[in-house]
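Predict the assembly for these three chains.
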Amino acid sequence: MNADIRPIRTAAESSLGDIFAAAREELPGGEAALRVRDEAFAVVGRKGLPNRRVEDWKYTDLRALMREARPLADTPGADEVEAARALLPFGEVAARRVVFVNGRLSPDLSDMDTLEEGLSIAPLAVALAGDAVSALALKGVPNDNAVVALNTAFAADGLVIAVSDGAKIDRPIHVANIQTGAAHASYGRVLVSVGKGGSITLIESHVGDSGAHQTNTLIGLDIADGASAKVLKLQDEGLGTLHLATLAARLGAKAFFESVSLATGSSAARQQIYLDFAGDKAKAEVFGAGLAAGGKRHLDTTLVIDHRTLGCSSRELFKTALDGEARSVFQGRITVRPGAQKTDGKMMANALLLSETAEADAKPELEIFADDVVCGHGATVGAIDDELLFYLMARGIPKAEAEGLLVQAFVGEALESVDDDALRDALSARAERWLSERV
Amino acid sequence: MLSIKNLHASIEDKPILRGLDLEVKAGEVHAIMGPNGSGKSTLSYVLAGKPDYEVTDGSATLEGEDLLALEADERAIRGLFLAFQYPLEIPGVATMTFLKTALNAQRRARGEDELPTPAFMKLVREKADGLGISTDMLKRGLNVGFSGGEKKRNEVLQMALLEPKLCVLDETDSGLDIDALKIVSEGVNALRAKNRGFVVITHYQRLLDHIRPDIVHVMAKGRIVRTGGPELAHELEAQGYAAYAADAA
Amino acid sequence: MPAVQETVARVRAIDVDQYKYGFVTDIESDLAEKGLSEDTVRFISMKKCEPEWMLEWRLEAYRRWRTMTEPNWARVDYPPIDYEDLYYYAAPKGTKSGPQTLADVDPELLRTYEKLGIPLVEQEILAGVEQRRVAVDAVFDSVSVATTFKEELSKAGVIFCPISEAIREHPELVKKYLGSVVPTSDNFFATLNSAVFSDGSFVYVPKGVRCPMELSTYFRINEKNTGQFERTLIIADEGAYVSYLEGCTAPMRDENQLHAAVVELVALDDAEIKYSTVQNWYPGDAEGKGGIYNFVTKRGDCRGKNSKISWTQVETGSAITWKYPSCVLRGDGSRGEFYSIAISNGRQQVDSGTKMIHLGKNTTSKIISKGISAGKSQNTYRGLVSAHRKATNARNFTNCDSLLIGHDCGAHTVPYLEAKTSTAVFEHEATTSKISEDQMFYCQQRGLSEEEAVALIVNGFVKDVLQQLPMEFAVEAQKLISISLEGSVG
């Protein structure tokens, strides 16, 4: 109530203000874009960074996680591009690669030539030169959310990908985000529109050195009637990085959306996912696996599923294994609006605590305003099941290996729907490496 | 081979085994029968090293080595195999992966090379065919969605693959229909060997029609109270456990 | 199925808006002046002949309350309450503070309770129930008008009396425990209650005593524009056991009335308290006019090892319910349970649930919540399960199911799970659905009408919770459920 008036600013809040004031004129998009950016920045300017007194941020105090605001990244030099090349993941996956180093598109590392018929890819700046307002003020996304607002205010680079009606783009597009060099902040935005009956697969990776970077990326998808889109994500940022990310998808009638993610990196991360069912009989599946160990690692997944049309279904499954002093947060809300009859929504969050000092918080929510629905959620928190461990050990498998097998099986459930074998193997291998480093 | 002397064990401070003695020689099949609550399953868990079971007195050795000092996996590596009464389901761990991990862990511990995948697959297929275990079952999560009979066959498959020295079968007949019982028993009989011992725990005599024991023990109140030949099982079948149960209460 | 038919017959016999307990008792009242000030607090304390320390306690709460703001996080919506436009004290004229015998009670009041199905006589209490006896404390607006079976209870060492009497007669117990579970500063409504609470029940069950009968309090709001602020304190000393029932009704009035109660339970080593509520305050009419604002703080402290506190509630009344009966599981091995049926119809708004705070080792808790929304109502389950670092082996199982009847209502589930120890095991599951068409068809095919089928299925849906209630309450509750759903079909 009285959160609107906050005369006292934290160091991070004041320097965010300074950084924005200094950068706003330089950001792409002209006057129209600037108005949207100013408005977006005002959200943070007015309310400050959200803290735990704000219900949506109860378990993830952004003000505490962001004590300082990093300067915006400079255009990377040749050294940084070379350093980035070495960090590129998914070499074995057959995909078209588009690489952002410190938030800037790196043409040297990217492959944007000979596009398939029906596919167009353009830098964000091009879109901002056109209809800047609709590229910045997205529909179906809470624009007063601090992470979204900061992205809107600062997004300088990114992509606009369009798939025309009926075009099926088989080769996935891999958007690689790499952070390297001096501690910096980087903001990126990828907008994807899939025309009627079209399809596309986006692979999103986030890697970097161990610098204290701050990243904020937003992916917005508009999936038209009968179209299909998949977003597969690896969040493997360096352990000093604060990772903030938003994924928003708007689904037309009979559209299909799938998202699978594996998070193994960053010092603290918040992944926000917004699904907006705008057409009847659409279907969405969202899976996530998180692995966090050591230090005070913090892994937040915040999910908002908005069913406002007839006969849609959504499935969400999140699995997190925590070691050391790591903490996971799962907030998931399924809303079924009046009239969204025959909605079928199910959400499950499981946390596995591997150490005495790990912590898991879960807040699954159902908000239902239509009667002819089948909705449910479940949440569990617990340690490794002793009975299962004993069964494995009774076959001669040593304890550490047996634990590893069980953890891998636990998170593996969230990854098994990835149908690209090479990608699934790469994700599994990353999870396996996490486990072996843990022991 | 297996030598148990004056074994006492409790769970949550409640004594279950109260001075149990048992000697099993290589090549022998021992049956342990007894009323419910006599401690039969506890014996199998204590031998296999299940946490929560506390041994308060006595000893158990396998080929002279103290079992009780070892972790569950170390006991398995020494050649002790427990066929579970209720095999556990582990979604996400494919049966094949599990078998391979277990076999290679044991080979590694014995200083043998890990079996390469093609050789391993061939080996599993051979053993699985005899037990009527399909390729599809091997691909599925461990015991996930398996019927009672399939789970028990899977236990026997593991036994065949791991080639243990001593097999403890805990109520392997529970939940099996007559056809499944036959398949499982044949699987077990195929493994009978001069250098391998068996302890078959069962409540009913019918399993012993298929797996013929050399020696039958009656267990009550946490210890062996009677020992005899195969005819003892028939006597129990005819007379029931009433005499022992009353004693046990 | 005679029970179902009887239920349906009762449902048919009443109009949509008819609330069975909606009559007004024509009785003159002593009222405090309207509004709230230190003087109001002094007036109440004086009326109750309270000692100085109690007045100080109230005044401190009052001053604190002046600095607090009303909570707004619950999913309920109501116009601002004018706390200066309420009466904070109303007592039937002629009731003096102090112990009373049944013979002293105004016959009009006895008739009121008779009409409510709670005859204040020391024989069979609920019609049709053999031998089983229930001691009743009847609270009418701000005062306790009668307490039955006091003597027999005192033979067993059990103290059961109005809290105003306990403050005078057992100050050492009250001083020790009052506010020890719900501190005066706990929340806006609890603090208000601490300042102006008028009456309620006090129970003390001494060491090793199993209370020889069910204890019960029956709350009745009668006066217009009156807030009811009752305060209940129940202490089960080491090894003691007590089962306590609470029932509530109010007349139909066009204005909203505020009910802000505080209930504190303390269970010492090996003690057990079972607390059951059938809440049937006036819910307002079909258009949402009138009805009780039920803003209640209920908390149990499992202070001793292996203690147990169990809350069972059947919530069918009130225009707005804001209520989270909770357990603080402080003692090692203690156990908390929460069983709830919350039914909303018309324009009712319910935001209710529980908190299970695991502090001690090997503590366990169980939550079973069944929400049923009909009409244009909104029904929210809100719950917290937390395990602190030292609460090793904490266990919780939660099941929250919601049933929607009709397409203008809402059902919401907002659980919070917070595990700070790896040895904790929490399992939470929730579902929301409408009555299965297959089940309806099956019942109707066997000859049940639509309403009968709904009543049958709903009663099945809430069975797990009903089983927790003492038998005679369960029968009442079952009927109440069907009546509450009146008009929800078709």
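The two ends of chain A are 48 Å apart (CA to CA). Residues 30-47 of chain A form the longest helix (18 residues).
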